[in-house]
Amino acid sequence: MSRTKKSIRNIVYNLVNVVLTLVLMFGVRTMFIRTLGVQYLGLNGVFQNVFQFLSLAELGIGSAIAYRLYQPLNIGNERRIAALMTFFKQAYRVISIIIIIMALVLLPFLGIIIGDQAENINIYLVFAIYIAQTLSTYLFFAYKTTLLQADQREYIISKYSNYIILGSSLAEVLILYFYQSYIGYLLVLVVSNILRNFLVSRRVDKDYPYIKEHDDKIDKEELKEMFKDFFAAFLYRINSVVLSSTDNLVLTYFVGLTTVGFYSNYTLLANSIKRFLRPILNSVKASLGSFVAQKSNEESYRIFQVVNLITIILYGGASIGLFILSNKFITVWIGDAFTLSTMFVLLFSFEFYLRGMQLFLTQIRNAMGLFQQLKYRPLMSMVINLIASIILVQFLGIEGVILGTITAGMLTNMIFDPIVIHTHGFNYKTSTYFLKNAYYVGLMFLAGFLSYIVTLPIDVTILGLFYSFLITLLIIIVVYGLGLFWLKEWKELIPRLRTAFKKKKK
């Protein structure tokens, strides 16, 4: 199957998975709020962020292994694939032990982070269940999902996920409705995670039987190079986790669990949008990694420019929609008592855009195997984020935390990652990239401003929400259409989209 066909199938299957997930996710969240309340919602967000920190033990091995799988998958080198997967399996077993040690070290600090805000909640039991869920990712076959992703067969993962999501969501709603049990809700997550990994593992064993047939090992010299990549990827992963996890922890300590609960509703909306966008970018990333392994720099750079424009349009338009519609949606969904300020929503939406661009740049950098260049940049980003968030939260509250994260991303990721990709990956100058992306941001703010002015008078009802969506979508199409039609990337994008749709139709 060609790269294009695989990408299209991944996108279609993933979008079906996303729609199903979103419908069920909002149903479960509504039941969660009504039965357990906003305090449990905040606690859930805090523990999710804590275990994102524990996932640092993964060291970025998944990205480094995926990069090394592209070429042997392209040429059908079964021994090489088997050797990489055997090493991957052994690495994840070691990671599981490291996570247990890290969790035990973190255990005494739980009371300090949460304080006395979690009344009548056994935080240590909750902590133990989250450990079980995290370990289930590394101990039970999860490493095999990387092989499917590298081979552009992510649609298989999505297919099994659909079955699991249906069953687990129904179980969560029943447990919340009849028993109001937070512990039961968490146990469903653990069981569903194990079951999903088991189904994927069984499919991989069937489709790639040679993984167990060969016992080749990676030589010591290559292992040294791999560990250098692991270390560099680990530093980037630290930065990613700190940027995504620090906000809730800082808010919990300085503002309180209730605010974290309100904030989690906005992150749910943002994550829901990402679920629509990531399948497209993940499919493109694997295709680009395979493409780079076979084609010239010039051809690869043209594809990069087109994919960059797609990312700009998707995340730019989505961030505008998030700014215009999030407070309206939350008001219609669970009431205006759960909404936050317009300034917060503006900052949150811009942060969403930056995270999308950072994700794209990270995926491109990983696909090109650029792990070691500027490997200490993430530490600078982490330090800026922590210091800025802690200082600004005391003066601006939740808006200060978001502003701190934006500041860190603007001063580090958005400057250094493009430089690394252009100079070490494509051997092109970066100045044109920066100028074009500044222009794209200007278009985004113009479309956002016009959408805000036009939709402001519309009533906050289900019908009003629908009208606001249509008007915002129309303004985005007009502004981006008029602003982009003259660019060479746009002129190259349209024929590629037509070709892709024709192939999908066939």
Automatic annotation (TrEMBL):
Localisation: Cell membrane
Membrane-spanning intervals of the chain: 12-33, 53-70, 91-115, 121-141, 162-179, 185-205, 250-269, 303-324, 330-354, 438-458, 464-487
Protein name: Membrane protein involved in the export of O-antigen and teichoic acid
GO cellular component, one term: plasma membrane
Keywords for the protein's UniProt record, in alphabetical order: Cell membrane, Membrane, Transmembrane, Transmembrane helix
Family matches, as InterPro entries: Poly_Biosynth_Transport
Domain of life: Bacteria
Native source organism of the sequence: Alkalibacterium pelagium
Coiled-coil features, chain-numbered ranges: none
Major location category of this protein: membrane
Membrane topology: Multi-pass membrane protein
Keyword Metal-binding appears in the UniProt entry: no
